[in-house]
Specification:
Tscrpt_reg_AsnC/Lrp_C, two-stranded antiparallel ribbon, about 25% helix, Alpha-Beta Plaits, about 25% strand, alpha+beta
């Protein structure tokens, strides 16, 4: 996973988490099609689940 994320230009952050899945991958793309292509590339690593952030409301304790 780490090697995959280091090579993927869309990945901005990688977190090790607890729960149903082991990792949280933060990506940034310009289009929905780029998100779909990234998800397609994840298939070889196993099952995944996606969530899309619509708006950042609070960052580093600062209300945006």
């Amino acid at each position: 996973m780490v090697d995959f994320c280091e090579e993927a230009k869309e990945v901005t952050d990688l977190f090790r988490i607890s729960g149903e899945f082991n990792y949280l991958i933060k990506i940034q793309t310009a289009t929905i099609e780029e998100i779909a292509a990234f998800q397609d590339s994840l298939v070889k690593l196993g099952p995944s689940k996606s969530h899309i952030c619509m708006k950042n409301i609070l960052e580093n304790g600062v209300l945006l």
